[in-house]
Amino acid sequence: MKNYYVYIMASLSGTLYTGVTNDLERRVFEHKQKQMPGFSSKYNVNRFVYYEETRDIEEALNREKQIKGWLRIKKLELITSCNPKWHDLSDGRYEPK
Question: Which helix (H) or strand (E) holds 69?
Answer without folding.
Answer: helix 57-69
